[in-house]
Amino acid sequence: MAEKGTISIHTENIFPVIKKFLYSDNEIFLRELVSNAVDASQKIKRLSSLGQFGGEVGDLTVDVSFDEAAKTITISDNGLGMTADEIKKYINQIAFSGATEFMEKFKEANDANEIIGRFGLGFYSAFMVADRVEIQSLSYQEGAEPAHWTCDGSTSYEISEGTRTQRGTDVILHVNADSEEFLNKSRLEEILNKYAKFLPVPVRFGTKSTSEPDGEDEEGKPKYKNVEVDNFINNTNPAWTKSPSELTDEDYLAFYRELYPYAMDEPLFWIHLNVDYPFNLTGILYFPKIKNDLEIQRNKIKLYSRQVFITDEVKDIVPEFLMLLHGVIDSPDIPLNVSRSFLQADGNVKKINTYITKKVADKLQEIYKSDRKGFEEKWNDIGLFIKYGMLSDDKFAEKANEFCLLKNTDGEHYTIKEYYEKVKDIQVDKDGNVVYLYTHDAAQQDGFISGAKAKGYDVLVLDGPLDTHITSYLEQKGGEKVQLKRVDADVAEKLIQKDEQIEAVLTEDESKKATELFEKAITRTDMKVEVAALTAGDLPVSVTIDEFMRRMKDMAKTGGGGMGFYGELPDQYKVTVNGNHPLVKRILESSDEDGARLAKQAFDLALLSRGLLTGAELTSFVKRSVEMI
User: Fold this and answer.
1) In angstroms, rounded to a whole number, what is the distance separating the alpha carbons of residues 75 and 169?
2) Where's the Histidine kinase/HSP90-like ATPase domain (predicted)?
3) What average pLDDT does range 12-35 have in this prediction?
4) What is the DSSP letter of 54?
């Protein structure tokens, strides 16, 4: 006998509210309903294992189907099922504290997950896309009668005798005119692939075409025929749900390809997460080849709750630098309907964040210690990630100091501590500062590198997008009284100031004349001439840029806080004329015309070595060089 009633929600306006506030995320209706079906299927299996259900569990596949002509979407399961009384209990009684409070609290809300999660509206998300919803259900309980529930989007419902003959539940959505996009095979399959790809119970969505062997042709070659097979959406037992001891390297790589079928490169290595106290967490994080590109590839780590996809916006669960990784995190301690405000405030999320950071640091340290040579070979691919972590997370930096590598121009790798020990006795200035020399472009700065190495100095290669900040990090934490200077910050003789002075060949008047000659040869306002007593083997003219100013400008370019002012300042170069070089003596002894010509040529050579000679100036230099040969 049919029964009619009113849903206990204390407001006549709940369904318009649901449709209005949840519309932007309306595709989650399918996630909610399929998740409910999976839960019902798992529960019957659990009851059977506990001896509380003596019947055959049978096939627990969840079926999703649609009928474009009838404008319906149906989600069917063979799970627990419900009696009429249970439908009234679980579906009809939505315990809101009151319509006024609800409307006031969420009048500005636009986060469907937050509303659904707060009020347990998973089933009612169906009304985001449907103007009528039916339930056909038959409980597992012995002697249960099938029940049929229907609701047209108002607070009225009707329960009558159902038609289902097998245990389980059908939820039938009569799709409204605004949501007919979901009466499309591709659209539904897209949503299922997003949310249901790894659900623990098989989810079937119609059939798909595939080819299978069909004997041989006359030439003995294999033949194939097209057949229709069940279209199962999900892998019910993904790699992260298994014990690491069950998995081979190929299993991990196969799962990576399953997650990212269009990835060009295979991951370098991975971390299998598995913890059950003080929170539950499983997952696999992969280290991709990052190289020197700081484009943070967001949406690469996927968050699941009991194998149900939640989101790929995970920045509140993992630290910013770990978002360079790929993979899966699954935690039942994070509710399915999770909002960003929840993530930011939840204590478990903060613990998860700390745990993952520690596991990543431990894994990197383990690889470094067990296979340093292999670690060095991977450094170009993982160095950016490690430096990013050190700059953004103090806890990670504490451990990373032991395995962060510095590479020099000879291709040798050193830990931060090892490098300090290497140069602390040689590259020390008159004030006791240990000076690390580095290049950001070894090819362009080869002349400066050669000059430094000729004096027995070592030169680091710091050419990554974060290395402007790493120089400051090393000065603060790289060792006692450490300073860093780019190798083109000054002439080699002055990069590391010593007490000893080189005797000047030129008299004071000759130095003054040389300064005037070069000032006339240089028409640029951003360059200042200085005559210095260097060794005869040093270059006759060098163009350098002050380390402090250049570093401040670099920091401004990379978004360094409070450095914007420096970014607006023009570059200022120093032109150092080596008064002890034979060419300078020759220039001074030449006629005014020849001296000016030689000075201009020597200056242009210095510009050319810095990549600063371009356009008409370069053309004039080439023409002049030909004339002088």
Assistant:
1) 8
2) 25-179
3) 69
4) -
- Mapping DSSP to helix (H, G, I), strand (E, B) and coil, where does residue 574 land? strand
C-beta separation of 79 from 39 below 8 A: yes
Query: Domain 3-205: which CATH class?
Result: alpha beta
Neighbours of 535 (CB within 10 A): 15
Radius of gyration of the chain (CA): 36
CA gap 194, 213 in Å, rounded: 31
Query: Which one, of 302, 303, 242, 236, lies nearest residue 272 by Cα?
Result: 242
Second CATH level (architecture) for the domain 409-498:
3-Layer(aba) Sandwich (3.40)
Structure tokens at 437: 């020399």
SS (H, E, C) 399-466: HHCCCCEEEECCCCEEEHHHHHHHHCCCCECCCCCEEEEEECCCCCCHHHHHHHHHCCCCEEECCCCC
Rounded to whole angstroms, how far apart are CA atoms 22 and 110? 7
In this structure, are residues 182 and 73 in contact, taking their beta carbons and an 8 Å threshold?
A: yes
Confidence (pLDDT) at 465: 84
pLDDT band, residue 192 (cuts 50/70/90): very high
Distance CA 382, CA 396 (A): 15
What's the CATH superfamily of 501-629? Heat shock protein 90, C-terminal domain (1.20.120.790)
| Residue range(s) of every CATH 1.20.120.790 domain in the chain | 501-629
Percent of the chain at pLDDT exceeding 90? 46
Entry pTM:
0.76
For 239-374, the fitting CATH number among 3.90.550.10, 3.30.230.80, 3.40.50.300, 2.40.50.140 is 3.30.230.80
Sheet of 222-232: strand order equals 3-6, 156-161, 147-151, 130-138, 168-175, 72-77, 62-67, 203-216, 222-232
